[in-house]
Amino acid sequence: MSVNVAIDGPAGAGKSTVAKGAAAKLGYIYVDTGALYRAVGVYALRNGIDTKNADGVSSLLPEISVELKFIDGVQHVLLNGDDVSVEIRTPDASMAASNVSAIPAVRAFLFDLQRDIAKKNNCLMDGRDIGTVVLPNAQVKIFLTADPEERAMRRYKELKEKGSDVKYEDVLDDLIKRDYQDSHREIAPLKPAEDSVVFNTTGYTLEESVAKVISIIEEKTNG
């Protein structure tokens, strides 16, 4: 039986970076479910569809094929065969992902893919409703968070390193809007699972956060 670790939390909490680091040390597959929603959002943007328009986005789903490929342990996202791993990381793709993830048809479309990966692999899967909806029976559930200002600064530095011309204030504003949108949506709102371990990474280095997550996983799976 595979070991599944569900890591949820708000934008910029460091879920992807921490989960990747922990997965590499444990020899697990890392699955970034947010990347799947970003891919759907990017497809809608490419086709001029308002990502809040449920009917418009839903009508595109039969045209969409999203795959995760793991090359040397690194996740690549393929949208209709094209590697969009870089394109899905833009601020526009981030907000599009938040919008389309509130659409039930999109969630159903990606649901089976996520569960199938978890069934076949020891994995760390991160997102916003992994422990509550996607993998409610995961052996380990962690809710990773951090103060909004620290999360915004992390995201700002990440975008600047990639050459984006952004302002910290705009990144913070977008993050606060996304927090509200993700936690107040009707379908699978962002919240900790009842049996999750809440870990606030504010003030922690990446290495310390990875070590803490690994210790939580080992405690839950060996105990």
Question: Descriptors for this entry?
Answer:
five-stranded parallel β-sheet, 9 helices, 8 strands, 51% helix
Structural notes for this entry:
This protein is an alpha/beta fold and 223 residues long. The chain has nine helices and eight strands. The strands form two sheets. It has a five-stranded parallel beta sheet, with helices on both faces. A three-stranded antiparallel beta sheet has the order 3-4-5. The model has no long low-confidence stretch (mean pLDDT 92).
Amount of helix: 40-55%
Oligomeric status: single chain
Let me know the number of strands: 8
Structural class: alpha/beta
Looking across the biggest beta sheet, what order are the strands in?
Answer: 2-6-1-7-8
Helix-strand sequence: EHEHHEEEHHEHEHHEH
Number of helix segments? 9
Rg over C-alpha atoms, rounded to the nearest angstrom: 16 Å
Rounded average pLDDT: 92
| Amount of beta strand | 15-25%
Give the terminus-to-terminus CA distance.
17 Å
Shape category? globular
Low-pLDDT sequence parts = none
**Biggest β-sheet: count, sense, barrel?**
5 strands, parallel
Helix-strand blueprint:
Blueprint: E1 4-8, H1 15-26, E2 29-32, H2 33-46, H3 54-60, E3 66-71, E4 74-79, E5 82-83, H4 91-100, H5 104-120, E6 123-127, H6 130-134, E7 140-145, H7 148-161, H8 168-184, E8 197-200, H9 206-222
Parallel strand pairs: 1-6, 1-7, 2-6, 7-8
Antiparallel strand pairs: 3-4, 4-5
Helix pairs in contact: 1-9, 2-4, 2-5, 7-8
